[in-house]
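Our collaborator T.R. sent over the components below with a one-line note: 'Predict the complex.' Nothing else. No constraints on interfaces, no templates requested, no preferences about which chain binds where. So this is a plain run: every listed entity goes in together, and whatever single assembly comes back becomes the starting point for the next discussion.
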Amino acid sequence: MPEVISPAARPAAEPPEPAATTPDDADLPKSRLAQRAGRLLSAAWRPALLLVLLGLGWWAITAAEVFPAYLVPTPGDVANELVTEREMLARHTWVTTYETVVGFLLAAVIGMLAAVLIVYSPTLEKALYPLILFAQVIPKIAIAPILVVWFGFGPMPKVILAVLIAFFPVVVSGVAGLRSTDPELLDLSATMGASRWKTFRKIRFPNALPHLLAGLKVAVTLAVVGAVVGEFVGADEGLGYVLLLASGNLNSSLLFADLILMSALGVVLFILVEAAEALLIPWHASRRQGVPLTTS
Amino acid sequence: MTETMTTQPAAATQRQNDGTTIDITDLTCTFTSRRKRTTALTGVSLSVRAGEFVSIVGPSGCGKSTLLKIVAGLVPPSSGEVRLLGRTVTGPQREIGFAFQRAALLEWRGVRANILLQAEMRAMDKRKAAARADQLIELTGLTGFENALPHELSGGMQQRVALCRALLHEPPVLLMDEPFGALDALTREHMNVELHRIWRETGTTVVLVTHSIAEAVYLGQRVVVMTPRPGRIERVYDVDLPAVRDYGATMSSPTFEKLAREIRVLLGASGHHG
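Returned assembly:
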């Protein structure tokens, strides 16, 4: 059944011989697609099952009326809230997503630059590391009010908080990655007469990528926290703002719906970084077995 | 072994035999750490002629790897002088090919791309480099594995890739630091035969550091024997074997056996395998 194959799966310049349309050849792209779907399914069914079980437990608790309805809403109430308030929730989700993504990207760039400076200059290392550590240990929620005073209620203070909170794992993993270069590779590069920049671009940086991506995965989940904390302190939009509003009105359905959206945002961003990892370092030992969650 | 007979023999002798390629004079190297001083090399002098194959053999820690790194300009000597192709070595040298103990390949690059790293770093002519890479891939039997990643290759094949990379820019001098140390005995023999052929076909000056007495004698025109720390040259043997050496015949020849036994006795170690 050759009509099933998508045009993209077919090579543009197909040999005109009849051999190309034998059932074996025609099934090849489809079976690869099926393989992929199968892999995704086998990766997804366990977390999906767990979610269903948790949902059932939740439903059982509300059905038995263990807690009053204004404290724990039923899954139905929450689903209803998600649907009826979808336009409002979508707007606020977009605001938080924007703050998180911008904060994360800035943290990635600044963190990597700091890592390069630290690795290449011992003087800068001594100057920068204590400062970075200080920025890390200071409670972010304590700086949030100052940032609001300085930058107002817009997205700026949230982005800054996301950067502050996501930046540290990027620096640490970047430094570890850049330092893990095999000294023999650096010797080799020297005998090739390579400049520092070429050595960085062709050897040190690609070599640091697996470490760096591990740090970025941590950073992206932290960036969500940063943005939401910023919204708690002073905002008129975003999921953190909605959460405060809902808790003030004792609207537990909206509260739960908001929480679900926040965690979904974190999960989606994490998966995106994982996808980037699969594209960037398919050669690395951690990625050689295909989809990471697959065990069977 | 059949192709060795068909190719032009003894290219090594055709190369200009004008003087020395490497000149090492009274070299000393001392490492100082916070706790102690270690003298790795003392009073080492050695000359290597153009196109010559010199093996350096010695027990672990005799500083033979350090000697190679000093020649390459990767480690500065404490005193003494190294001249490479007539110029004093003061920093990393570009006119060499260096093969390491481990293959030191880039994990994310395929075989061909790993070999071509040499060309990219040196900004060589792309088309010329590509043609030379193809030639080396064929010469070392890597055809069909051009795009394979290092982790998909056996140890022997990884070393072959490293060898191709070291030879890509046709360096006049090839420095090898126990390149076959991590291979199994059988693969090692194959690599020895291959290296012998490559050396004769390219006429490159080769300095090979090794633990293996058999490898040193089979490949070298001269064998330098070093003593343990502080490393110095104990003796230099001329290997009285024909220029073209068949592996099996060489191994069982009386000249080979006599020389190998002498070196083994000199190293005072029945524990050091041949």
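Summary for T.R.: The mean pLDDT of chain A is 83.
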